[in-house]
Amino acid sequence: MKNITILHTANEFIAKGDYESFLAYCTADTKWVFIGERILHGKEEVRAYLKEFYQEPPVFDVEKSIEEGDFVMVTGEIRLRNKDGKYDHFDYCDIWRFEDGKMAELKAFVIEKQGLPLPSSE
């Protein structure tokens, strides 16, 4: 199975809130780097992160997926329900590194959409 297919299959479990099935697609020593925010080491830290931030499954809109060798890059938008019950919107670019068909490392660039006005054409 191609790495890009593995990633999309694993993310289907995230969308259903089945985080344990998702984690089965990760290596035991998986490393997640959220640029400028935090680094998670191993499945236990990832499990705790998912429990904290994905109390309700996120909504993903994938724009583009590119696979090259052991790497898959995905861009898109993610929406997460906040404590007030409203959705926060983020743009993201994830770069995944695979080892033996499992997700070994994530480098994630996640930027919250602030509802900024578009630049004027003046």
TrEMBL record:
Claim: Cytoplasm is one of the keywords in the record: no
Listed InterPro entries: NTF2-like_dom_sf, SnoaL-like
GO molecular-function term, one example from the UniProt record: isomerase activity
Record's keyword terms, sorted: Isomerase
One protein family per Pfam: SnoaL_2
Keyword Isomerase among record annotations: yes
Gene3D superfamilies, per database record: 3.10.450.50
Protein name: Ketosteroid isomerase
Organism (species): Sphingobacterium siyangense
